[in-house]
Amino acid sequence: MMLHKPSYSMLCYSTTSATNVTTFGVILGLTCALQFFFVAHTFPWSELFGSASLLHIDNPFHEYNVAMGAAVSSIGYDPFFAAGRTTGFAINHSDRLPAFLASILPSSVTAAEIWKLYTFVVSIIASICLPLTLIILRFERNAIIVGSILGLLLWWTGMFRWFHTAGMVSFVFIAFASLPFTAMVVRLLTRDFIKSFAAVMGLGFVAAFLFFNHPLFSLPSIIFVIFYLILNSKDVYWKSGLAALLAVAIIGVLLNFNWLYYFLNPVDIQETFDHYQRATGGDLVIKSLLGIWEKASGARINTPIALAVMLGFFLAYFNTKRALLFTYSCVGIFWLLYAYIAGDSEVLGKLTQPNRFATIAYLFLALPAAVSIAKIFCSALQPERTWRRAISRVSAGLLAVGLAIGVIEMGREISFANIGHYGQRPPQVQNQEQYANHILSFLNTNTDASARVLFETSLGRIHDGGHIAGLLALKSQREFIGGPYVQTGFASFWDGIAFAKPIAEISSELMHEYFDRYNIGWIIAHSEKSKHYFDQLNGVVCISEWNQLKFYQVQRPHSFFVTGSGELVEREANRLVFTAVSGDTVILKYHYLPGMHSSEGTIDPVFIGDDPNPFIQLRGTSANVILTYR
Length: 630
Prior knowledge:
Blueprint: H1 8-12, H2 21-42, E1 53-54, H3 59-72, E2 76-78, E3 85-87, H4 96-104, H5 111-127, H6 129-136, H7 141-156, H8 159-166, H9 169-189, H10 197-213, H11 218-231, H12 238-254, H13 257-264, H14 282-289, H15 302-314, H16 322-339, H17 346-352, H18 357-381, H19 387-414, E4 429-430, H20 434-446, E5 452-455, H21 469-476, E6 480-481, E7 493-494, E8 497-498, E9 501-502, H22 508-517, E10 520-525, H23 528-535, E11 540-546, E12 549-554, E13 561-572, E14 575-591, E15 596-598, E16 602-606, E17 615-619, E18 625-629
Helix pairs in contact: 2-5, 2-7, 3-4, 3-5, 3-21, 4-5, 5-9, 6-7, 6-9, 7-18, 8-9, 9-10, 9-11, 10-12, 11-16, 15-18, 15-19, 16-18, 18-19
């Protein structure tokens, strides 16, 4: 049997999602299967339900929040950090969905397993979002195939891969999911409202789910709608379309009322001091487009995407749905400029961490790029010798080189070899490492539950490459002064900053006041500034040293009572139990939160020193007191 070379018409004939559902089901299925294979290889699959954890950068912090979600559900009291603080999935925005799942799943399913499964599943879903968007918008088969390739390359090569392996899983998920959501918004705005009641309700639930997953989901969706209404006004059913869109927004907000209430009315003050993802400068836009990693975190796949979009418009490859493709291009350009300009704004910089939106920019640009690349390659294959074919062949050659580089980088990213990677070098799931082992050994051997540990967290993640304070607290059952994350709250300690000020500026008298106020019995420090400070401080003795760490004991009596006396006999999320309590007015060295209740007498807030959060004051109590939250 003779094999016939595929003809131009076979490769480039128009096939839309309305005419061949099976074809597009196969494309999505193959994309999903390929992503599953790659992720199962790098995770690896065998550790999905094993005892090991995701420990790179922010992952330990999120695992801790998932554990707290299991303990307190929506909102609750965390006694392990900062002398008592709020926790729960209502206020922990980057891990809300897995923390919610932890609150309803059996306790036999661990926080580590839930976080790993969530991370794994999000990887698979993200891979099909770009081709699914093209299908919903009824683009042709070849554009959808190219979209599948671009979606995989964007996920594996660049900041998305870094974000995902660093623990910013929810942001990665809503970034990819925002694309098919915008496509469904387009369908909603261009259909009759009466025929779309089910679509409105369904899209409202989708919006609520994605908004619940991460609050930044709303931003790309809102910006897209604004650009779409301006640039596609003739296609919009204005009266019914806007009514439907408003209904979707109302559903999305109402179903998220619980966490929105606490976002707008915080229970306590957990001020952040971070300056993450806020680099600014026009040169960073250029570096990002050229795929330069330094400062701009650019990826090489960015260049062929941007080139394909420009070629699509300037060489008139976009002969259909031009306004729609222009909309996605404008949204992409908007987010690219926002990413490297908005950081100068204190409000936008703190709330949105603008640099992360460069990834969303290239996702939106990838849609018109996929259409353009498909058109360029088909034009290059046409049999007639024309100037258009010549230009298309040159363009196709340049794009092929760019895509080939992306495929090579994807192969490097999947590799376990000790070579450069955008994200964490596989495997992602790892066993507990040296710093955690040594710190836990110290905590179990040299400390007890009668006092707290002043633990210096690290922006540079010197503790095994991750923010592991939360897991250390859970495994040791010790309370820490500091937060489970760096640069948060007043009662904290990170990189030479203690209690919201440089440690060198704290007098010895004030530091001893902090020791007493927060019942600090031990110190674990890593920075040279902090070690130098404590080496010279009276009443503090270095009892051990290992690598960058120094371990100190504070020579003072241990007590959780500012006034009065008693003994702490039980401490867990949402519950503190004291016995042998005495004193007409008792003040505890635990922060007060509205909603706390005492089994005996009255409970009120009282402010002490420079801490912006009040402490617990008890009156009329008996010898045994149980404090609970809600």
